[in-house]
Amino acid sequence: MTDLYQSQRAMRNMRRAAIQRGVIAILDVGSTKIACLILRFDGPDRLHDHDGVGSMAGQSQFRVIGAASTRSRGVRFGEISVMNETERAIRTAVQGAQKMANVRVDHVIATFSGGEQRSYGLAGEWELHDSVVTEQDVARVLSACDVPDIGQGREVMHAQPVNFALDHRSGLGDPRGQIGNRLACDMHMLSVDASTIQNLLYCIKRCDLELAGIASSAYVSGIASLVEDEQELGAACIDMGGGSTGISIFIKKHMIFADSVRMGGDHVTSDISKGLQIPLAQAEKIKATRGGVYATGIDDRDMISIGADTGDWDKDSRTVSRTELIGIMRPRVEEVLEEVRARLDAAGFDHLPSQQIVLTGGASQVPGLDGLAARILGQRVRLGRPLRVQGLPQAITGPAFASAVGLCLFAAHPQDEWWDFDIPSERYPARSLKRALRWFKDNW
């Protein structure tokens, strides 16, 4: 547990130091693309950390001064599968962004979508010795949360207080300075597979970079794509990537649940490739330009040429109707959405006061997807685009870059987490978290 606490705190300090120096890089390691943004923090007061145990503030005084993205290599289901290929792709993206920014960066904050994320809701209570809530009282109530056994070979990625109650008053964002007798806290904890993070950490080290922070892709996509009212009243962000689909649920501006489905746009491409017997690159192009999930009468007559260069005239001059293409795509898209619905149901999403669903990510751009999602998920659905941040090139403003944009906001305004408080050592939860993030010990 001490390892976890110290390593996360060390990462926070590195992030702070990098921002004080003025630049930090953002790295989104996805199955389809690897994107790197370089942020410059302006003004004498470069750190805009708010004082509350609260949610994200608005955009900090930063602007994007460099951006590059490259086709991902060696990443499957949001996890590194071939180390040297991923290393090459990360180097390409980082070098491209550095060239545009004309600056060298040493520290990166990374996000990824794999690792079989699991969510836990924890609760703790603490009797106040003095009637005024202090920083130490917040630390003690966090340490009083009963931690489940997260299992062998898993690490804690986020541990955020999402609600405080003081005596009979609940829904407090920051209880410090308030008067009462009994402090209670609800916390959301997200665990991931340890080896996934170890591989990412090792890969970033091989690129001669230091990891100054790490965040779940589902979390940062929600930060970028949900508007303030949605984050406050309750909404789910469905981030449809290439190798996996991230799910995050927010209420009162805090993430209270995260999960992921190991299917995404790449699976649709693969189905098209197999169904039409064409190369993956061609299948991807046809999906992007002619794909859809609803067929009308006109689509029977809308023919798509899928010619090849084999020299066999019959094979080289084939055409298929758009209806056929939609017939291949729709079952897989439905399967992904059905799986998402099962996860939302399990999380109790239907008990929230508002049940808005926002679709984002590269695979969300299939025409008609919002209508199909509304039918399967049975809720209000809209397509989300990430917030605008200063200096972001036009090419990097679409839904495919939601997690990269969200990571910029996370870098500038990280939400308070467990390790931001001086938890008394005798109060560390025993058992499960002793092993957590042990891999960091060798790296600091």
Characterization of this structure:
- With 444 residues, the protein is α+β, with helices and mostly antiparallel strands.
- The protein is 34% helix and 27% strand.
- The strands form five sheets. It has a five-stranded mixed β-sheet, with helices on both faces. A five-stranded mixed β-sheet has the order 14-13-12-17-18, sandwiched between helices.
- Helix 2 (83-101) packs across helix 4 (194-206), helix 7 crosses helix 8 (280-290) and helix 7 (265-276) runs antiparallel to helix 11 (322-346).
Tally of separate helices: 13
Rg computed from alpha carbons, rounded to a whole number of angstroms: 23 Å
Percent strand: 25-35%
Give the number of DSSP strands.
18
What is the global morphology?
A: globular
Helix content: 25-40%
Oligomer: single chain
Mean pLDDT: 83
Largest sheet: 5 strands, mixed
Low-confidence sequence ranges: 44-59, 426-444
Spatial ordering of strands, largest sheet = 3-2-1-6-11
- End-to-end Cα distance, whole Å, is 16 Å
Q: Which structural class do the helices and strands define?
A: alpha+beta
Provide the descriptors you would attach to this structure in a database record:
444 residues; alpha+beta; five-stranded mixed beta sheet; 13 helices; 18 strands; 27% strand; disordered C terminus
Can you summarize this structure?
This protein is α+β, with helices and mostly antiparallel strands and 444 residues long.
Please specify the SSE layout and strand pairing.
Blueprint: H1 2-21, E1 23-29, E2 33-41, E3 62-71, E4 75-76, E5 79-80, H2 83-101, E6 107-112, E7 118-127, H3 135-143, E8 154-166, E9 169-172, E10 182-193, H4 194-206, E11 210-216, H5 217-225, H6 228-233, E12 235-240, E13 245-251, E14 254-261, H7 265-276, H8 280-290, H9 297-301, E15 303-305, H10 313-316, E16 319-321, H11 322-346, E17 356-360, H12 369-377, E18 380-383, H13 402-412
Parallel strand pairs: 1-6, 6-11, 12-17, 17-18
Antiparallel strand pairs: 1-2, 2-3, 4-5, 7-10, 8-9, 8-10, 12-13, 13-14, 15-16
Helix pairs in contact: 2-4, 5-13, 7-8, 7-11, 11-12
